[in-house]
Every structure is written in C-alpha cells, then in structure tokens.
Write a structure and sequence with these properties.
With 865 residues, this protein is mainly α. It is 62% helix and 3% strand. Strands 1-2 form a two-stranded antiparallel ribbon. It has a two-stranded antiparallel ribbon with strand order 3-4.
Length: 865
C-alpha cells in the first residue's frame, strides 16, 4: 500500500509539473516544490496512460536513445546542455541495486517525447489539450482523410467556459471535456501507427540505401566478395561504406563491425588456399594439411550459416509499426546476433593462422595448443575438436615409433630425428630429440621415454637381429587398453599416451637388457676387459712381461707383430687364462701403436679387445681409446715394477759375495759397501713408492670402480642406464689413475719418476755386473779368462789385461763413479718425488689424498717441504 501511495504522489507531481510548464503564467516563475493538487481527471488519465500497454514498437536500446537525445541537443546548438546530459546520463546509468530505476530506457524515451512535444508547442502547433491546460499529446500525426483533424490553420479554436470548442462538432467537443485531452481515436494503437509512419519517413529521408541492400552487401563481404555499396578499402585493410553513401552513423558503424567477419574469413581462406596449393611442399607437412582440413570443415559450417542467412535476407524488413518480433527477416541488428558465435570462432581461426604461418609439425601443434587454454566453454570445445584433427598425424607418428620402431616422418615434423649412421653408432648418434618440434603438451621426460623406446626397438632389430620385441610391444598395448592400429591415440589423451609409452618402454627395455646380458654376455666381456686390458689377471701379465721383455727392448721398427702375437698365445697357454671362454680369448689381440724414431717396443706395445656388434655400442672407438690409455699407464707401471724386481734379483746374490773382498784394501772395501748400501736404500725408496702406487691403482681404483659398476649394472633398467654406468666406471678409473685433464701435471711428474726408476735399473745392472766380474776375476787364473769376463761395461772389459793392483785401482775408480751416478739419481728422485707428493693435496679427487697418506704415512717427505 505504501508503494501505491508513493506512485500516486509521483503521478500527481508529474501532471502538476507538466501543467505548470505548459501554462504561460509559470514561464517566469520557478516550479513549486510544494505538494501538487492537479485536476483529478488529468491524474486519472495520466494513470491510465502509464498503466496501459501502449509501448513504442522500436527496440528498447538505452544507449541508442541516450545517443539520440544528445545528438538532438547538439543539432540545436546546445553543446553545454549536451555535455550536461551526457554527465547526468552516465550517473543515471551507473546507479544500480535496490531503489534504482530498472527500465531506464522508458524514462529516456518519455523525456525525448516530452521534449519533442514542447518543440511542437513552441512552433504554435498546439492540440486542444494544451489549450485546455491538459497533458500535451505524445504525437502530432498527420491524420488521414477519414480522421478528424484539429489544426489551427484550418479551424479557429476558441475555448469557452462551457467546455465547447468553436469549430468542432458536438461529438468532437465532448472529447475535450473531463481533462481537456483530444482523443483522436478510442483505439490507442492509432497514435502508434501514425508515429511509426512518421519515423519511417524520417529514416527514408536520412538514408539513400535501404537496410535490405546493406544486409545483402554484408553477407557478400562475409564471403570475401565486395558488395554494391560495401567495398574493400585498402587504406584501412577492411570492408567499409564509402563516404559518398548516405547512411546513418549507427548503420555505418554496424556495417563496419559486421564486415570484420569477412576480413577474418578472407585471411583464413587465403591461408587454406595457399597451403593446399603447396600440398606436397616440404615446408607444409602432414600436420599443416590436417590443420587446413580442420579449418575447411569449419568454413563449410560457416558456408551453411551464410546460405541460411542469404535466404532470410530475401524477405523484406517490415515497418517498425508492424508486429515483426518473430518475423522471418534479416536486419543489421539480427545479423549482429547471428554473427556473434561465428565472429568468435573466425577471430580465433585468424589468430591461429597468424601463429602457425611459418610453423610445421610439432611446433605448429604446440602453438595451437597454447590457444586452447581458454575459460570459454565454447572456444575450449572448438579448440579441442580442432586439435584432435591437427594432432592426428603427430600421434600416429608416436604410435608407430613406440610400438613398431618406424619413423614415418618424410617432412621432418616429428620431435625425433633419425640419421644414417653405422650400426655401432645407432644408439648414440642414430636418433635424437628435435626440441623445436616438441609440442608443449608433451613433457621433456615423456619425449625422452618415447625416443628411448623407439631406439630400443631399432637397436634390437638392426644390431641384435632380434624380432621378439614385437610381442613385448603388443603386450604393452594390451596392458594399457590401447589398440596397435592407426587412430588409437588422439589429442586430449595424454594420460593414455603416457601410460602406453611407460608400459612399452618397460617391456621393451627389459627385453633388450635380457638380450644384451644373456645372448651377448655383456658382463663376461666386461670382466674379460678388466682381466686382460686392465691387467687384472696377474699370472698372465707376469708371464707375458717375462717372455716379451727381450723382444720389446729392441727398436720398435724391428719388432714383428706376428711374433708378439705368438708370444701372447704362449702367455695364454702358460697361465690360467687358458681356461677362459674361447670366444673371449680369440677377441684378445696384440696392437702396435704408431711409433717415432728412437721408440722401443715397450713404447708401442699394447693389447686390444675386439668388441663386435652389438657390444661396440658400449665399447666404441672412443671408449676403447680410453681403455688403451689406461692399459699403457698400467703396462708402464708393471714394466717399472718388473725392472725393480730384476734389479733386486741381481742385488741379492751379490750381497753374499762381500766376504770375498775381506782381503781388499780398506778403502776399496769401504767404497764397495757404501755404494751397495746407497743402491739398496734407493731401491727400497723406489720399491715403497711403486708398491703403494700399484696397490692404490689395483685395489682403490680398479676394484672399487668395478664393484660400483657391477652394482649399477645390476640396477640398470635400460641401455641408457647401462651406458651411463659404464661411462661412469671408465671416468672413475681415468680420474683416479691421474689420467684426467685436471691431473696432467701430476701425470707428467709420475712418468718422469718411472723413467728415472728405469734409469736406476740400468745403473744398478752396471754396478752389480761390475762387482760380479771383479769377484770372478779375482777368483780365477789370469791366463784363463772366464766366460763371464765379457761384460757389457766398457770399464770391466779392460780388466783381463791388467794385474791385481791395476784391477784394484780400476775397481776403486769404477765404484767411485757408480756411487756418484747413484747419488745423482737419488737426488733427482728425491726432488721429483717431493714434487709429486706436494701436488697430491691440491687434487680435487679425494682418493688421491689417500694415496698421499699411503706414500707419506710417517710425514717424512712432508716435513721436508
């Protein structure tokens, strides 16, 4: 009840304001804000109008109505009023919520009609209602011949107190009573028809192109064809109406917005046509072909829509006065509604075309996938449908690669690249990931598993000549519920793809490791390399060094590799190596390295192991070169050890012979004892160094690395893990054995020590050969030279022609010279050894610090730093 009372008050106030505004007496005085008390008949009539269903048949567009009022004020030259209206309207439109006006358009329409009516009154075209002080008429239509007309020019209207108007019939005069409003017709629709006709005539006067023609032109433009009036403007790169065509500004703007669809269609159509013309070009590829096919399907649906709209455009657009709310016609506003969804799709397709213009394969699929991350359900479903078509070739490549090992990629679109290489390089260099072609919806880890699975199949097929991998692939597909036929995978099934790849990789890798371990006995061959190339078979190495020593002492250019091969066979037959697998033994062979002038056989001799396919995938040329480097180091270490042992064999029996010199002069005896002692002390130092170094290499390096490699070999699940474990094993040996890049200075110092030890061996041999000959010469008769008197030493060869005194003098001189030489070797050895020890603490590998502890456990050398 309170609301009804408030509405009544508002109506009375409205009637009062209209009445006071229309009266001449109120033109000079402000409107009173007191409680109005208008004529009850006027209030009743106003209430009847406001509560009736008399509504205009034009579209209720609030913004258009506000724009019309503002334009009218501008045309009248009231710029300040136009600005004030715009400001007031913005505030009025922003008010929402409880207590606000909901039907804002009706208020604006009412204000416009009232304003136009006031303008009519200002031109002295008044209705009887205005004369009588009633409400102004909403329209001043031109009446037809059958309708009564009240015009000042034709009839002079005089209002008299009895309520009659002169010049009107009695029946017409009765219509002015009870409120003074002239009712042209009892049917309210009559006024609306008259207003609509007037509006139609105004529209026709403003436009020289009908809306039907504009609609047809827009439909032509949406097919990429210029219309009669809507043409393609190169300057703005779009379709527009020329300025010479007279249409309303809203219609011009609406045509421009609708023709954006044609511009987008033209861009998409040109891309599809260009791609299809270069169908077999390498820069296109199957993914781009699928993308164009998907776009063509969307354009086909678009063509169907245009066909329907073209048919509707043939129907005439009814007048606004006609009830055309459900008519089968097409106007620019209806076209806007029809084009809402196609515009969104076409705009997205144009963006995709721009993004994918220079891309192909997986890169194109990834670029399209980036636009699929959209919150709009319509666009999300559209992109999902499009991507299923686009990614179909890519997923087929994945299926073929993972389950069959076939790389069906003639346009280089797949993220796996294949290269033509030798069989031994197939695993390491035959295939690699092409990151530029990896789509964003496939992760790097999944891509690596895909790559490894296909590589495993090709490795089994090419290198291992195995065909049973097909059963593992079929079982993997069955376990994940995926078919092995084409089309089993698609976009949006990333989880299914990942499960298929994971299952296939697990089964095929397991089969591959079984083949490598069981059929090709990888572990046995690794152990054979450790025993023979890393000198782990002690009896074989010792016997081989004994029998090849004399031969390797000769110049390298005089040594026969066939003879060394025979000596190798002898060493095998004379040691426990003879019980090894014949397949392993026949792979072991002698290898002579390139030699320079002056090289000895020791410098060029090495052993090699023939790792045939598929083992040469692990034991590549670079890997075998590292094994050769390790062998040369270990062989040099064993040679130095062998040299020290040989020196000891000559030193020990001669120590016992010192009793034969009891009759020698004290000076010679003292010099002999002193020289022998110096030689033995230096030998002990060298032997201590070599023993600890060899222990460190054989146990701390080789055995520990082998134990770690064995554990990792057992834990390897695929060939990549096995290769990584072997590379780690080999790297550990190289680094710990002072053969790495960071230990080059230490490695050079070590080899200088080895050369010095070998030189000491030659000095020791000369010393004890001289002592032995001196002993033999004093024991035998001077006239019967002994067979042992022919010494290699030039000093001892002249003793046969001298007497006892001369022999004693020569012995003293010989011992003095040898003592000086041994002292020089001892000093040089101490200097080199201290330099070697000083470099160990700065090495990064911690095991080398343990080597220092073993070599200098008493800190004898460290205290001298």
């Amino acid at each position: 009840m309170a609301d009804d009372h408030r509405v009544g008050d508002l109506i009375r106030q409205l009637v009062h304001r209209l009445h006071t505004t229309s009266s001449s007496s109120s033109s000079s005085s402000p409107i009173s804000n007191s409680n109005p008390n208008p004529n009850p008949s006027n209030v009743k009539y106003a209430t009847r109008i406001l509560s009736s269903r008399m509504t205009p048949s034009i579209t209720a567009d609030e913004a258009a109505m506000a724009y019309s009022i503002k334009s009218q004020l501008v045309k009248q030259g009231k710029l300040s009023d136009a600005l004030s209206f715009a400001d007031l309207y913005s505030k009025f439109a922003s008010i929402t919520g409880p207590g606000s006006v909901k039907n804002k358009w009706s208020v604006l329409y009412l204000l416009k009609v009232v304003s136009e009516d006031r303008k009519t009154n200002a031109n002295n075209i008044q209705t009887v209602s205005s004369v009588s002080g009633g409400l102004p008429a909403l329209f001043e239509p031109e009446l037809n011949a059958n309708s009564p007309r009240v015009v000042k020019d034709s009839v002079s209207l005089d209002y008299e107190g009895n309520g009659d108007v002169k010049g009107l019939s009695c029946s017409d005069s009765m219509k002015l009573r009870n409120g003074g409003v002239l009712m042209v017709s009892k049917d309210p629709e009559n006024l609306r028809d008259l207003a609509h006709r007037e509006f139609t005539e105004l529209v026709k006067e403003e436009n020289n192109v009908s809306e039907e023609v504009l609609v047809r032109d827009v439909l032509y433009c949406c097919q990429g064809i210029e219309g009669k009036y809507v043409l393609f403007d190169e300057s703005i790169d779009g379709y527009a109406l020329p300025d010479t065509i007279r249409v309303s500004k809203p219609a011009r703007i609406m045509v421009r917005k609708l023709c954006e669809l044609g511009w987008l269609f033209k861009k998409v159509k040109e891309y599809v046509s260009e791609t299809m013309e270069n169908f077999h070009d390498e820069n296109v590829g199957t993914v781009a072909q699928a993308f164009c096919a998907a776009l063509q399907d969307e354009l086909t649906e678009y063509y169907k829509l245009l066909a329907v709209l073209q048919l509707q455009s043939m129907n005439p657009i009814p007048l606004v006065s006609e009830n055309a709310s459900s008519g089968n016609y097409l106007s620019l506003r209806r076209l806007t509604v029809w084009f809402a969804e196609p515009m969104v799709k076409m705009r997205l397709m144009a963006v995709l075309v721009d993004s994918c213009k220079d891309l192909k394969g997986g890169a194109m699929a990834g670029a399209i996938h980036m636009h699929a991350q959209h919150g709009d359900p319509l666009l999300h479903e559209f992109m999902k449908r499009l991507l299923r078509r686009v990614c179909s070739p890519l997923f087929e490549m994945v299926r073929s690669w993972v389950l069959e090992g076939e790389l069906e990629d003639i346009f280089s679109e797949f993220f796996v690249l294949g290269h033509s290489v030798k069989a031994e390089s197939l695993w390491r260099e035959g295939y690699r990931l092409h990151s530029a072609m990896l789509p964003s919806f496939i992760s790097q880890s999944l891509a690596r598993r895909i790559l490894r699975t296909g590589k495993s199949i090709n490795f089994l097929r090419v290198c291992c000549e195995d065909r049973s991998w097909a059963d593992a692939a079929t079982q993997a597909a069955a376990a994940t519920g995926t078919t092995t036929r084409r089309g089993g995978l698609g976009y949006g099934e990333t989880d299914a793809l990942e499960s298929l790849v994971t299952e296939a990789a697990k089964r095929i890798d397991k089969h591959l490791m079984d083949v490598v371990y069981n059929q090709y006995r990888f572990k046995e061959h690794c152990l054979a390399i450790k025993r023979y190339l890393l000198l782990g078979q002690g009896d074989f190495v010792q016997y081989l060094m004994d029998i090849v020593g004399p031969e390797l002492s000769e110049p390298a250019n005089t040594i026969s590799s066939f003879k060394l091969a025979g000596l190798l066979e002898s060493a095998i037959r004379s040691s426990n190596a003879q019980y090894d697998d014949p397949d392993v033994l026949e792979r072991l062979r002698v290898k002579m390295m390139p030699h320079n002038v002056g090289d000895r056989g020791w410098d060029v001799f090495s052993l090699d192991y023939d790792a045939r396919i598929p083992l040469n995938t692990v034991f590549t040329e670079s890997v075998m070169a590292k094994y050769l480097k390790i062998f040369n180091f270990l062989w040099k270490l064993r040679r130095v050890e062998h040299a020290l042992i040989g020196a000891w064999k000559k030193m020990k029996p001669n120590l016992i012979t010192s009793r034969f010199f009891t009759k020698l002069p004290k000076a010679v005896k003292f010099r002999l004892i002193l020289t022998s002692r110096r030689c033995q002390v230096l030998w002990n130092e060298m032997n201590h160094f070599l023993t600890n170094l060899q222990y460190y290499i054989m146990f701390e390096v080789l055995e520990v690395s082998w134990a770690n490699f064995s554990d990792e070999m057992e834990a390897s699940k695929d060939l990549d893990d096995l290769l990584s474990a072997h590379d780690k094993y080999l790297h550990s040996i190289v680094e710990k054995s002072l053969l790495g890049e960071r230990s080059q200075a230490l490695y050079k110092s070590l080899f200088m020590l080895f050369d010095l030890i070998l030189r000491f061996r030659s000095h020791a041999d000369r010393l004890y050969e001289g002592i032995y000959e001196f002993q033999a010469r004093t024991m035998e008769d001077k006239t019967e030279p002994s067979a042992h008197s022919r010494s290699k030493s030039e000093d001892s060869e002249s003793w046969l022609s001298d007497g006892r005194k001369a022999i004693t003098q020569r012995a003293d001189e010989f011992l003095r010279n040898m003592g000086q030489e041994i002292d020089a070797v001892s000093k040089e050895y101490s200097s080199l050894f201290k330099g070697f020890i000083s470099q160990l603490p700065v090495q990064q590998h911690i095991d080398l610090k343990f080597l220092m502890f073993r070599l200098d456990f008493s800190e004898f050398y460290g205290s001298a730093f």
